[in-house]
Structures are given as C-alpha cells and as structure tokens.
Design brief:
The longest helix is centred in the middle third of the chain and has 29 residues, at about 75-105. It is globular and about 50 Å long. Helix 2 (about 30-40) crosses helix 5. It has a single domain (about 1-205), classed as P-loop containing nucleotide triphosphate hydrolases (Rossmann fold, 3-Layer(aba) Sandwich), CATH 3.40.50. Helix content is about 55%, strand content about 10%. It is an alpha/beta fold and about 210 residues long. A 5-stranded parallel beta sheet has the order 2-3-1-4-5, sandwiched between helices.
Length: about 210
C-alpha cells in the first residue's frame, strides 16, 4: 500500500485534495479526525491537556474548549510547542495503527494521511509516508477562506498561519505542490496528474 501525505497551512486547500482522492477510491486517514477521537470527554489525552494548560480549558461535559485553547496556544509559540509535544505522539501512533489496519485488510492500494502538521510531526517522505503532496495558496486567499469557513477574525487566522511551517520550507520536503489559488479546473487537472503518478508508483510497489 502506498501512503501519500497531504499537508499545507490553514486554508490552503487540503480538503479539495482529500475529496478528490477519496472520490478516486483512496483510503483517507485524517489526523484532525483522529485528534478529535483522542480528545473526547474522559479520554486520557483530554485529561493530560487540561492538566497541562488548566481547568479553564475544560467544558462542563469534560471535553476540551477547543476554541479557547486555540486562542491561547496560537498567541504563544512556546505554548504551541507544549501542546504539540503532548498531542503529536499519540496522534501519530493512532494514525499508524489505522494505516496498519488498512494494510492488513488489503482493501486499497493507496492511502492518504491528511495532516496540517505532517512535516512538523516528522512524517516526511520515508518517515511515515511514501510521498508528500503540499497544498498552497496565496496568504490573503487563505485568510478569506478561513474567515468565511470558521468564523474567525482575519487577525486570528494570521496568528495561526504564523505558527505553521513556512511554505518555502515545506516545499523542500514535498514531492508535489498544488497551488489552489489557481482556477479550480487547473487544480483538479494537477491533482489528476498526481493521482496517475501515484497509481504508477503503487503498481511498481506491488509488482
């Protein structure tokens, strides 16, 4: 099974790539969804985060106040580092377990790991994934998308962008880069080209 890592900063268009490959039959493992599973009310990771950052980030349900926690960590690089140090290992372990399950089941020849912090977490090519697809977009377009999608202010979005790895550094670790600022038809054309190459690589791996 060939594993593609899909990454990119907030608002860069990872969702477009995810849905494209899903529609082609690829299995999708979304790190944000995995994180959500691991931080449900009463979960061990939830308790550890609350213990580290304080009870003010706990909801009455016992879950995390994600909006409040995000507002806290994205204003402080050290706090972001503390949170990542706590969350990355269990999330990566759970993602790896899901990939191992897919491999055992043999239902797909291509799986995609979708993670905004894929490279920051150490999942570069040969270290968890076989190839890396980086989604990028113009900064102002990214801000516009996230403001419309999540209801954040432009300032909040820029704070989150500032805490993520710069696109120039990400590009050096990516096998493909797709700019979603471009016309949607062109974006889909580039994704189709990546899919064709993935299938060739997968056939070579199986053969």
């Amino acid at each position: 099974m060939l594993v593609l890592g899909i990454t990119g900063g907030i608002g860069s268009g990872k969702g477009v790539a995810t849905e494209f490959f899903r529609s082609r039959g690829a299995a999708i493992v979304d790190a944000d969804e995995v994180a959500g599973e691991l931080t449900k009310p009463g979960a061990a990771l939830t308790a550890r985060i609350i213990s580290e950052f304080g009870c003010e980030f706990a909801l009455d349900s016992g879950g995390l106040d994600r909006r409040r926690l995000a507002a806290r960590v994205f204003r402080d690089a050290r706090a972001t580092g503390r949170l990542n140090k706590i969350t990355h290992p269990p999330i990566m372990s759970a993602v790896a377990a899901k990939l191992a399950e897919l491999q055992t089941e043999g239902r797909t020849s291509i799986a995609c790991v979708v993670a905004p912090l894929l490279l920051e977490a150490g999942w570069a090519r040969g270290r968890g994934v076989d190839r890396v697809l980086l989604m990028v977009a113009d900064d102002e377009e990214r801000v516009r998308r996230v403001v419309a999608r999540d209801g954040l202010s432009a300032a909040e979005v820029r704070l989150r962008m500032a805490q993520q790895m710069p696109a120039e550094k990400q590009r050096r670790q990516a096998d493909w880069v797709v700019d979603t600022t471009a016309d949607r038809a062109e974006v889909l054309r580039q994704l189709a080209s990546v899919w064709e190459e993935l299938n060739r690589l997968s056939a070579r791996l199986i053969g």
